[in-house]
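Two records follow; treat each independently.
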Amino acid sequence: MSRPLRMAMVGGGPGSFIGPVHRMAAELDGRIRLTAGVFSRDPAKNAKAAADWGVAPDRVYPDHHAMIAAERARDDGVDLVSVVTPNHLHFDVSAAALRGGLHVISDKPATLNLAQAQELADIVAASGKHYALTYTYTGYPMVREAREIVARGDLGAVRKVVVEYSQGWLSKPLERDGDNKQASWRADPAQSGVGGCIGDIGVHAFNIAEFVTGRRVERLCADVSTVVPGRSLDDDCNVLLRFEDGARGVLIASQISAGARNGLRLSVYGETGGLTWSHEAPNVLTIDWLDAPSQVLHAGGGYLGAAARAVTRLPTGHPEGFIEAFANIYRDFADAIAGQGGRLAPDIAEGVRGMAFVERAVAASRDDAGWVALQGDAR
């Protein structure tokens, strides 16, 4: 396709954290342009977002149904829809767009619950359109380098995986402050689903563990808890994992770890060494060998593998961060639409697995069930 893909966004208006990130990431490489949208249910906020982002007034719509119908009727209508709403709207918007002949890229998790995710998988298959999820951290060059290292067998057989995603911003009941939009919807089961912390950041930890190791989690033992009194959803999670080849794992997700900022950290240990990547130092990957000196690999280095080099924009020593990683997912998606690859963009299968992880862990913890099977494939 010689022209940029035309994108509509649903959600992401004033007060949103992730909406502006999606817009910047989508447009970073010039492959996609935001041309239409429904940015807010509030008409004034909807119009303001459009004006701020250069969207023509006649391409700002009151709801996604009106948008899809109008854009399909245009010769210059959009090619894809970006879904950046709270979780409870993900299914309806994604399903309507796919049935309307549009590609969809959605913020995670895929849907409000597992049943919706499985139904959406059927809709994706029937539509013939592309669908992707912004599991952003898989877009970092050094995360893709870690994946290649494990896949080559450099560490030997994987034995242990430790992934932690700790935040402290919900250490207080911010959802009771009517002005805190980000906290209020995340703590509301009607908008967030059965998982709070585990559905917000736990799915990121789960996804990156499977992405880097290339292995599926088969069983889990979960302790999913609510620490702040009166909160409706979990805010702290500790989950033991067993992978398909026998490797053991530990997943920690917390939003009440006071003082923690955005502490995503992954370690993978094999027979001969282990690697560690941290989101707060994303351009570095450390490998600690059992019988050799440690190595520190840097983003942009000519010694890195093809997957890392393909998503690196700057020479080594010039830091790239969250927006660029997000943009790599969008670029992968654009490549997939153009028939040029894009296989590393997380798809609906990853969305189904994420929802299966959330629901299974929450239920197992509630029932004190101990070790349970994780069955997370699309039907």
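The next record belongs to a different protein.
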Amino acid sequence: MQAWQVHEIGEPSEVMRLEEVERPTPGDGQVLLKVRAANINFPDVLMCRGQYQVRPPLPFTPGVEICGETEDGRRVIANPALPHGGFAEYAVADAAALLPVPESLDDAEAAALHIGYQTGWFGLHRRAHLEAGETLLVHAAAGGVGSAAVQLGKAAGARVIGVVGGADKAAAARELGCDVVIDRKAEDVIAAVKEATGGRGADVIYDPVGGEAYTQSTKVVAFEGRIVIVGFASGVIPSPGLNHALVKNYSILGLHWGLYGTKNPKLIAHCHEQLTELAARGAIKPLVSERVPLGGAADAVQRVGDGVTTGRVAVLPSLSQENGAA
């Protein structure tokens, strides 16, 4: 089968190589899945760079989220068991963790439903306890992680402010349903948020960026607000001033979604039920901006790493190189 292999650490476009390899052999409790679509996540970029908390042995195949097909023809959502990731024709995954694909979603949308939406649901509901009528601020609102949080926030009855970088991403954020869109490249984020909230600030802030975005968050978080730390796409990990959190009376909440797989896996299944229901009534629908063939995966992973994509980019092994299109 064909699979992308990483033999050394570096930028995805430089270290990912498409090779002919043996199909992976499932271990105890695992199943072999035909990859129908693989969603590109920022952790795939970080793994290539050697900067992710999980460091599979070299060589490995990236791709942490797929829509796969079982031997009996069922479509399932899975997190492949590394080092045999999803940017390949076949992958292996733990049988107990497979989730059914909502009928309302195609393969690419299904591949994009899991990590970003589970992270958003846990962050907004389990950690921040977002309530209807509250104001939610989402950094990188047009990205894969942010777009899921925007849709989930709207579905929960929140007023959503999206912060993006650039006119194209601003258009995507509006299409996603943001009530207010702030282009950080053209506007003063702090002033714009204060204006949009009448000086009160945001009740919940969803931050997959870190760095300057986190600093801005501390200046616009409301009384008894909650800042949910999801990741550090900026590459800069903030050092919070806890005296500031004390004086302004806000909470800093960490979210490592992967921990629930071992600490409380029943919650993951419960969350998937909620997401399936939301998808069925059209309240959420992954924004898949591009569908690329397997041969285009390395370039697509690099573009996700460079921050120039909107929504999700899906890799579909069934697409030919010539017919790959958004």
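Discussion point: The two ends are 25 Å apart (CA to CA). How would you locate this feature using only the token line?
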